[in-house]
# Entry
Amino acid sequence: MPEVLTSSDRIVEFLNSRGVGFSAGEDQLKNGASALEVCRLFDPSIKDVDARTLPRLRELRDTLLAMLQPSSTRKARAALDGIAATVSFSLSFSQPDKATWFRNSGHPVIGKVLIDVAELINNDQWDRLKNCANESCASTFYDVSRSKTQRWHSYAICGNKNNVAAFRSRNS
# Structure
């Protein structure tokens, strides 16, 4: 059975599609073939990603990354409103235990990314998305600490390297 990803898992994967981290590769949204894997996180039925959609996906990713920066949230939220205006939704209450959003128009992946972002914001979880404090890495991660003070995507990788470097610079 395939692993079920949460909205935060999908958004982190979407933001990290820019090819960051120590295993940095190429931008996964550079062409339709590489973007397909990222898009299938949100819509497994998607068959291809056309050339017109790629710049819109990159714009959405850049806007969400800007929303992680406290200094630019107003401008980024206005940009996100503009992207959201390209997609329309309906809400269904047919299931007794939950309401479900359905996209009426616009690109299905953009719509599902927006739904995940809305869920994170409405559940007061957006501020748990952060970029790694290690500038060589800059991976986006979901802060699971109770105090919301996690600085590195992985303490074992980035945190330890940072602390060893600081120790060496103090003792040299």
User: Anything to note?
Assistant: The chain has a mean pLDDT of 87. The first strand starts at residue 88 and ends at 92. The chain has one domain: 7-170.
